Amino acid sequence: MERRTFLGLTAASAASAALPACRSAEPPGPPAAGGTFQQVGTLSQLAQSGDRLNTQVGTAPITLLKNPDSGDLMAVSRICPHAGCTVEWREQTVLFACPCHNSLFSPTGGVVQGPANRALATYPVKVEGETILVQG
């Protein structure tokens, strides 16, 4: 085998082996339907935190907030559907932002700017007395 052919095959082999490492893991999908409701906080905690509370349902990080259109309580996933990074709330723009690829999401989870092409997952919420419950 000629040296040029050998080097070309070696380089191609090394590049193809490295590709899986460059690809991000598949981010989690939306929450499964029919899960049980779990206590994630109280109305007092939500009010004390400025009507936005970072918590989790099971092991999934979520933000509880009031829907700016309806005033209803919402639970929005903080996991970007593009690459699985944890999004951050940006008070100055009133948007969720992904630190990995700069995707932006509305307070209700909708895509404002890609590369993400799916909305943040949302979870069913109910309130019993002072207790906030999220299905997950």
From TrEMBL:
The protein's required cofactor(s) are namely: [2Fe-2S] cluster
Cite the Rieske domain residue spans from the record: 38-134
User: What UniProt keywords apply to this chain's record, in alphabetical order?
Assistant: 2Fe-2S, Disulfide bond, Iron, Iron-sulfur, Metal-binding, Signal
Q: Identify the InterPro entries for this entry.
A: Rieske_2Fe-2S, Rieske_2Fe-2S_sf, Rieske_Fe-S_prot, Rieske_Fe-S_prot_C, TAT_signal
Q: Which GO cellular component term is one of those annotated?
A: membrane
Q: Could you say which residues form the signal peptide?
A: 1-17
| CDD domains assigned to the protein according to its UniProt record, in alphabetical order | Rieske
GO MF annotation terms: 2 iron, 2 sulfur cluster binding; metal ion binding; monooxygenase activity; oxidoreductase activity, acting on paired donors, with incorporation or reduction of molecular oxygen
| Protein's name in the database | Ubiquinol-cytochrome c reductase iron-sulfur subunit
